[in-house]
Amino acid sequence: MPSVYVTEKAPSFKNSCTLSFKRTNSLVVDHKLLKNSVLTKEELEKDYPDVDYRLLPFTGTWNDANSTNKNEFFKDDIDDPHVKRKIAILARYPEIRNLYGPDESTQYITLICVITQLLSTYIFTKLLNLPYKILIILAYIVGASISQIIGIIFHEISHQLLSNKPVVNKLYSIIGNIIIPLPIGISFCKYHLDHHAYQGVEGKDPDLPLEFEKWLVSNRWYFKIAWIFIYPMLYVLRGAVYAKKFTYWELLNWLCTLSTDACIFYACGSKGLAYLVLSMWFGFGIHPVAAHFIQEHYVFTQGQETYSYYGWWNKLFLNIGYHNEHHDFQKIAWSRLPAVRRIAGEFYNCLDAHYSWLGVFARFIFDDGMGPSARAVRDRECQRKGRKMIKVSI
Question: Which of 125, 136, 199, 235 could be cross-linked to 80 through a Cys-Cys bond (beta carbons 3.0 to 4.6 Å apart)?
Answer without folding.
Answer: 199
